[in-house]
Structures are given as C-alpha cells and as structure tokens.
C-alpha cells in the first residue's frame, strides 16, 4: 500500500509548535518574533506566496510587516531597505521574495541580508554552515528543510544505507536538499539536465526528490518499488477541467503512486511545509536574539 504523505497535516503540526514556542518566548522575555517580507513588482504567484506568509505569521502570533515595492525600485533603494531591516531590533527574519526584476542583482541583495536574520538560508554564511554540517547555528532553506521533515516522518528510521537521488541542482532546493540528506547519512546523487540515463538513476533511489520545474517529468517506471517520493514541483497547467488551470508536480503522480511506498501529492505535499519552516526559522531567530 502506498502512503500519501499529508504535508498539510505535518505543516499544521509545525505551525502549532511554533505558536506555542512564540507564546513562551513572549511570556518569558517580552520579545515578539518579527518577520519582514519584501516583494518587488507584481508577479501574481509571488503576491499569493507573500500574502500567505503574512497570514501564517499572524497565526503564529508574530509581528509581521510587508514591504511591497514597485517594479522600478532601484537596487540601491532595496539595499537601503534591507540594511534598515537588519538594524531593526523588532525584526528577526527578513525574506526578499524571488525572483527580483532583472535590473536588480539578486545575489547582492541576498548577501546584504544579515546572516542571523536570513530565515531563507540563502546567505553564504548559512550555505557554508549547512555544507559543513553546522546545523545548530545555520538557517536551512525552508523547502528542503520541510521536505526533510516529510522524509523523516515517512521513513521513521535513520537514512544510513539508503540511496537518495535529488533531481535538480538549484541553490534554493537541489543543493541544500542534497546536503541535508548527506548529513543524515544517505548516499546522495544529484541529477540534472546533463545527467545520462536519468530513468535508470531514479530507479536506484530509495528516496527520490524531484525539484526540476518540469510538469510530470518523472514517470512511474522511473520509481523503485517502495521508494519514498518527494515532489517539490508546483507547475500550473492550462486547460484542466472547465478550462481552469491545474497544479501538477514534477512527478507523474498517478503512475508514480503505483510504485512508491510513500509519495507527496501536489498540492498538499511539500508546498505547505515551506511556509511552516519559514515560521520555524523565524521563531528560532527570535530565541537567539533574546539570548
Ligand atoms: N521564491 C520561490 N521560492 C522562494 C523562497 O523559498 N524564498 C524566497 N525568498 N523567494 C522564493
């Protein structure tokens, strides 16, 4: 029997714990966890994400502010805003929504965020800490951290001796995901668009993580029987029922679910975990700031 991994339920669990932790911090120290989300321009998908981050922050009892800037905001104005947030003691987490408009160097903005407020885990300091296994003081990127929680819950065992294949090598998901799995003693391979015989490689995976942004690319006959399949993809396909668009992952769910031991659906798998882990990183940051 295939287990459908309920990311919504696990995320709700994480959020409930974050809320309790925030209440305890406030009661003990008076410090209210604070998060600032910055969005530049009008990308509709980004606007939806940012709105749901603000809503979840309020649910956790956080102080939450949003800066919505016009698409012609200059790089230097954005740097100045990030520096202001770095210096604001009421803010413990700063998230600049990506992608940014082309005239702004996203790398420069990310490196301007203070490493100890970088709840996205994209700053070199946090990337380096994850790479060297210093997870106690790192901020780990939210999507891979959330995926890892789902893997641990699904397997309920140490990952020693298991083969993990991560399809996709992005800085936001693929690379940090590989580091987390390696840190948990899995044997890890990172596949990408130049990988030879991807189906055969995927068939060797006890844990298969798909993060490529290609709708339904990974087919059921690429999945080892009993494998744990984590689908990070969120792709909007036009022309679903009633002409509405339909969300699908990077995995062909129907055929993969016939092979997998456990699999995340889209939506309702990894998606809700990302925001939950953002809240978790923010409350951790507030605890660190409070001493
Ligand atoms: N855009 C898509 N995913 C993310 C994310 O995890 N963090 C930020 N800042 N922007 C994103």
UniProtKB/TrEMBL annotation:
Involved pathway(s): One-carbon metabolism; tetrahydrofolate interconversion
Record flagged with keyword Transmembrane: no
Protein role: Catalyzes the oxidation of 5,10-methylenetetrahydrofolate to 5,10-methenyltetrahydrofolate and then the hydrolysis of 5,10-methenyltetrahydrofolate to 10-formyltetrahydrofolate.
SUBUNIT field: Homodimer.
Taxonomic placement: Bacteria, Pseudomonadati, Pseudomonadota, Alphaproteobacteria, Hyphomicrobiales
Tetrahydrofolate dehydrogenase/cyclohydrolase NAD(P)-binding domain residues: 141-286
Record Gene3D superfamilies: Leucine Dehydrogenase, chain A, domain 1, NAD(P)-binding Rossmann-like Domain
Name of protein: Bifunctional protein FolD
Catalytic reaction equation(s): (6R)-5,10-methenyltetrahydrofolate + H2O = (6R)-10-formyltetrahydrofolate + H(+); (6R)-5,10-methylene-5,6,7,8-tetrahydrofolate + NADP(+) = (6R)-5,10-methenyltetrahydrofolate + NADPH
Gene name, Swiss-Prot/TrEMBL: folD
Boundaries of every Tetrahydrofolate dehydrogenase/cyclohydrolase catalytic domain copy: 5-120
């Amino acid at each position: 029997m295939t287990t459908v991994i309920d990311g919504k339920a696990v995320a709700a669990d994480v959020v409930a714990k974050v809320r309790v932790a925030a209440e305890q911090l406030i009661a003990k120290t008076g410090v209210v966890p604070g998060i600032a989300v910055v969005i530049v321009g009008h990308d509709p998908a980004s606007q939806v994400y940012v709105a749901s981050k603000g809503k979840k922050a309020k649910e956790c009892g956080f102080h939450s502010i949003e800066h919505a800037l016009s698409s012609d905001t200059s790089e230097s104005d954005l740097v100045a805003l990030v520096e202001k947030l770095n210096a604001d003691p009421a803010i413990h987490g700063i998230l600049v929504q990506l992608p940014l408009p082309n005239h702004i160097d996203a790398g420069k903005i990310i490196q301007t965020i203070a490493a100890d407020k970088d709840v996205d885990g994209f700053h070199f300091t946090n990337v380096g800490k994850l790479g060297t296994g210093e997870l106690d003081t790192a901020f780990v990127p939210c999507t891979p951290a959330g995926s890892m929680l789902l893997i641990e819950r699904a397997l309920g065992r140490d990952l020693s001796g298991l083969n993990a294949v991560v399809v996709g090598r992005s800085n936001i998901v693929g690379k940090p995901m590989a580091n987390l799995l390696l840190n948990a003693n899995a044997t890890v391979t990172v596949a990408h668009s130049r990988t030879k015989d991807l189906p055969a490689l995927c068939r060797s995976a006890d844990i298969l993580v798909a993060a490529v942004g290609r709708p339904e690319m990974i087919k059921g006959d690429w999945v080892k029987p009993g494998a744990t399949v984590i689908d990070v993809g969120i792709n909007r396909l036009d022309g679903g029922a009633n002409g509405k668009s339909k969300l699908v992952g990077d995995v062909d769910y129907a055929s993969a679910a016939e092979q997998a031991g456990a699999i995340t659906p889209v939506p309702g798998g990894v998606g809700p975990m990302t925001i939950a882990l953002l809240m978790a990183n923010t409350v951790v940051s507030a605890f660190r700031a409070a001493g």
